[in-house]
Amino acid sequence: MSWADVKKLDINAKHPKRSQFPVTRVALLSEMVEECLRLDVLFIIDIKCYDIRAVSAVLALYEKFPKMYEMALISSFNPQVVYERQGPSQRRFDNPLRHLGASLCDVLLRPLYMTVLPYLLGLSVLLLEKDSITQRAVARARELELRMVAWTVNEPVEKEFLVHHLGVPYLTDALADDRILAKGQ
């Protein structure tokens, strides 16, 4: 869709309580950043695919809003996004052989995720798939002074276990039980 078409959408159109909300338009990323900073809200920008334009746009936001260094977290499944955090460079994946080599390196580097890589990449937070979080991983992250966040946790029992037994916050698509969980604290 073009931005002109996206701007016309009402993101509350299918919300179950849409009658309680005014028409709400899709915000530009820069508008969302400004609002989060204005409200003093911590936020995550999750870059879903590697595109140098996305990386450059986010880096430009950090230049425009230095407070983002305190308030924002960048996440991505693609390690290239993390590698590009200091600024755009040549893409690793243009050539199929280079792509294969880079992918192999990512597999070989996996054992280093909880050892050397946090220091080399300047990581402060690890976003891990919920089923890969163990007590040992949580302890190791704390030793490295890394915060750990689980994704995507939608079941109440999983939320309870992560928060109350492992001390790990989570990302969720289901907020309904969170009020019940909060009352139990």
UniProtKB/TrEMBL annotation:
Domain of life: Eukaryota
PROSITE patterns: GP_PDE
UniProt-listed InterPro entries: GP_PDE_dom, PLC-like_Pdiesterase_TIM-brl
CC per GO annotation: plasma membrane
GO biological process: ethanolamine metabolic process; N-acylethanolamine metabolic process; phospholipid metabolic process
Gene Ontology terms, MF aspect: glycerophosphodiester phosphodiesterase activity
Ranges of residues in domain GP-PDE: 1-185
Gene3D superfamilies from the UniProt entry: Phosphatidylinositol (PI) phosphodiesterase (3.20.20.190)
Protein name in UniProt: Glycerophosphodiester phosphodiesterase 1
Originating organism: Amphibalanus amphitrite (Striped barnacle)
Lineage: Eukaryota, Metazoa, Ecdysozoa, Arthropoda, Crustacea
